[in-house]
Structures are given as C-alpha cells and as structure tokens.
Amino acid sequence: MTNAPHTHDKAEGRTRRIAYVAMLVSLAFALSWIETLIPLPVSFPGVKLGLANVCVLIALYLFDTRTAFLLMVVKVIIAALLFGSLFSLLYGGAGSLLAVLGMWLLKHSDRVNIVAISVSAAVLHNIGQLCIAALIAHTVLLFMNLPILMIAACITGSITGSVAAAVLKALGRMPAGSAR
Amino acid sequence: MTGSGSKVKGRRQGLTSILLIAALLLGGLLGWAGIQAYANAHPGHLVIITDSEGMTYELPLDRDAQQVITTPLGTNTVVVEGGRVHIEEADCPGQDCVEHDSISNAGETIICLPNQLVVTISAGDSSVDGVLNTDDSNAPASDFDTIAR
C-alpha cells in the first residue's frame, strides 16, 4: 500500500486494482455491519450514516467511476442480503444508481471536493429511495420527508466525505490530483 | 500540474464545495420550514388511511379511535388519540411506522412501506378535497366509514 514507485506496469496496476477492490468490498461489508450498531441521535425513516460509502468514495478517487459503481452494486446486494430485505435492495439500488451518476458527473466536472461529492451523493441517494418508496406506496406525499432527509444527508455526507478524504490523505494521495 | 497550481485549484474547489453543501442544506431547511408553515396554517380534521388493497378509511381527528387494518401484506393498528395519530402496532419487519412520531397537521403522513399503508391527515371535511384521489366519497365526515375505491 505504501510502495512509492510509480511503475506503470500494466499487469501490476491491474493486480493492485483487484487487491484494492477486494479490500474495499470487505471493508464496505464490515462498515455496513458496524453501522447497524451505532445508534443515531435521531430516528427518522431513511436517515442513515452511510459509513460504507467511505469505501465507494475511496474507489472513486483511487480508481474510477466504474470501480466505484461496481463497489456500490456489491455493497447494496450484500447489505440487503445480510441486514435488509427485498425492499432495501430496491431502495438501495435506486438510491445508489442516482448517487453514482451524481458522483461521476461531479468528479468529472472537477469543480468540487470529495466532501461535496459525498453530500450530493447522499442527497441523490435519498431522492432515489423516495422515488421507489413513492412508487410502492402510491403516494407522492413521501416527498414531504425530503427536506429532513436533505438536512441529514448534509451532515452524514460531510462526515463520510471527510473520513474518505482523511483516508486518501493517509494513503499518500491527495484527493485533488489522484488521477491514476 | 504544479504544486502551487493544485493548491489554487484545491482552494477554488473548497469554496465551490462549501457553496454546494450550503445550498443543499438551505434547500432542506427552507423545504422543512415551508412544510411546517403549511401544516401550522392548516390544522388537520380528518385522518385518511389507505391500504394496499386500495381501501380508504376515514376517521375524524377529534375523536379518539382505534382502527386495525389487515391486508394480505400485514396488519397495522392505527390509533387516534387527543387529536394526534400514530401507529400503535404493526407486523412489518422495520417498525419504522410504529417508531414514527405521532402526526396532527394536514399533509403529515405516516407510511408503512412493507404493508403499503399510508396514513395521512387532511385539512378538509372529507377526502374529496383532493389530498387523495378518492372520487366517490360523499359520506358525512363525522361518520366512521370505509370507502372502497
């Protein structure tokens, strides 16, 4: 992890990528579980810390959107299988899809840092979930919950974004210039 | 890119990022304030419950009552008490609806997604006021009635 030389050997790069992705998947897995143990000061349906998103953000910065997307898909499936239901798979899937799309656009624009990307992804995740929930419950009234979810997303997204930034810094790569 | 160049870029990114987060936060706060203002201006009168079968139940908010709703998806017990509504009991896995704070203002909702149950409060005297599209209600509001859609 700390080996410095930028030997752009293709095979080595691929091996590193595989190793990193495997590690991040298991980390996301562990974080999803740890998150269920952390009580939040507020209990509002849909409000979550989203710790596993730290891994997705790290994948986005260390590798690319494709890797982040892959990680997100695996994360959603594992989290739903272990701690959720078919419903969480649907909500999580829709939310994650929107979130990855937003992350890709914002990362591509190169205008905002990792914390803002994290917050935006959290908000988009909530919007995606609300869309599915509104479809299932046949009511748009669910969107009345959006403002509170947005406020919560600003807080939780800032936390996860800052954690990811700190991890990337510790890995010796500044988020700003980590084009692999 | 040079070191100082990336520093300048980092600072610009930081500013844009703070603005973006602030905008999202402000949007959330304004939306929340708007909903609160609307709710305070429109005290609720009628509790409208819609289940997964499309059945609609109406209860007056000012009379304490308990309504058990059972569909193939599950059972929820809705309780009206002292002008507030909450879900007392449910057999859904998440229990989000039971943990939800009680509601009392027009437009507020409690939703049990697994059982597809929607509890909402209407400002009007009957569901014809358009909060829900129940088109065939002409029953007196004070009655405890069930309207099939």
Strand-helix topology:
The complex is a heterodimer of chains A (180) and B (149).
Chain A: H1 10-37, H2 53-62, H3 65-83, H4 86-109, H5 114-137, H6 146-170
Helix pairs in contact in A: 1-2, 1-3, 2-3, 2-6, 3-4, 4-5, 5-6
Chain B: H1 3-41, E1 46-50, E2 56-60, E3 65-71, E4 74-81, E5 84-90, H2 96-99, E6 109-112, E7 117-122, E8 145-147
Antiparallel strand pairs in B: 1-2, 1-7, 2-8, 3-4, 4-5, 6-7
Describe this structure in words.
- The complex is a heterodimer of chains A (180) and B (149).
- Chain A is mainly alpha-helical.
- Chain A has one domain: Arp2/3 complex 21 kDa subunit ARPC3 (Orthogonal Bundle).
- Chain A is 72% helix and 0% strand.
- In chain A, helix 4 runs antiparallel to helix 5 and helix 5 packs antiparallel against helix 6.
- The two termini of chain A are 14 Å apart.
- Chain B is an alpha+beta fold and 149 residues long.
- Chain B folds into two domains: 41 residues; 102 residues, mini-chromosome maintenance (MCM) complex, domain 2, CATH 2.60.320.10.
- In chain B, the strands form two sheets. In chain B, strands 6-7-1-2-8 form a five-stranded antiparallel β-sheet, with no helix packed on it. Chain B has a three-stranded antiparallel β-sheet with strand order 3-4-5.
- The C terminus of chain B is likely disordered.
- Helices cover 29% and strands 30% of the residues of chain B.
- Chain B is built from two helices and eight strands.
- At the A-B interface, helix 5 and helix 6 of A face helix 1 of B.
